[in-house]
Amino acid sequence: MSAPQAASDEVLIARIAQGDRLAMQVLYGRHHVRVFRFGLRLVRDEQVAEDLISEVFLDVWRQAGKFEGRSAVSTWLLAITRFKALSALRRRKDLELEDEAAHAIEDTSDDPEVAATKKDTSEALRKCLGGLSAEHREIVDLVYYHEKSVEEVAEIVGIPENTVKTRLFYARKKLAELLRAAGVERGWP
Amino acid sequence: MIALGKKMLGEGPSELELLLPWHATGRLSAGDASRVEEALARDPALARQYAVIREEYAETIALNESLGAPSGRAMQRLFAAIDAEPERQPPVTAGLGARISDFFSSLSPRTLAWSATLGAIVLIAQAAVIGTVLMKNQSATFRTASLSMNEPVARQLGGAAPPRALVRFAPDARVADITALLDKYQASIIGNANGGMFRLQFGDQAMSKQDLTSLVNKLSSEKIVNLAVPAS
Fold it and tell me: Chain B contacts of A188, Cβ < 8 Å?
């Protein structure tokens, strides 16, 4: 006897389109943490990120009937999250400020230089990942954390596939520069 | 050895170099993954860059995992908003389809098997009844033409037979079109289709040969009719 299979995301979306509240709870349970983390990395504010996930899943509730299944549900969720996050940033009118603040955000942990002196490359790397611009952070997260393909990232961010590849390359170069400035040499570039 | 992306001074990164992060995450097609594997095996500089990428990959996951999770308030707020939404009216057709589908899926295989058997028995019984009725009518109708030699055949048939034609409809003819055509000619389909030809009967009055030819010619010119010939 085979074990019962969990409903796929696509099946859940179809049920949500019919007004199935339980399907909504299951979908939320599956994806809300990743949606939250993606949003938080973009808006850098936990309260705003929490508001975002409510808005994202409410959109899913309302728009489920229009989901055509051309992309994975997780890709669709991240695309909505990104759109909501950028709208939230625009509302705060600090989009420009945000990039500058990325380098000056208060943090109780060590700065890259200190981390490097401790020879803790991992910590320095994480610190520098946090110091990337929003555009670069976003693409690094989508590829490395959300494990999205070139095509999926292109769909979420709304840029051509070749731009996805080059943008990640230059994000990685920027990361290497930040690390080098922090005294961490990794042999590339 | 020089990395593929640096083979020519001043050039940007190579295509394979750009694909390395997706190779690390396993999101390349089999063909691209194989090309990248080959390049990594023959280019130490590319392999070094790949090692750096794997480090970035691991630390990006660690960084994101350290972000924690949202509080339960987010979910409460979401479902409060959903409850405040107007009640959803599913489309009638989808709802009907779903209800039929739900009904059949709710039946156990045993129940379905019994239902199918019962349905088959009813069909056989129905066929037997129809067959009996037809046999009775058949004997009454055909005996007059072949056996009652004392009476004129025309009277046995109830006067001259109404005109008939064999018709083949165009493959893309819709049921609605065919129905409209039958109405227009006051025709009805008699008997089953044979080789794609339908036998049509026009009205209930006899018709001269000339009128029948004219009718068939008119019928042949109809858009949804491929072929029409007089029939007995």
Answer: 48-49, 52
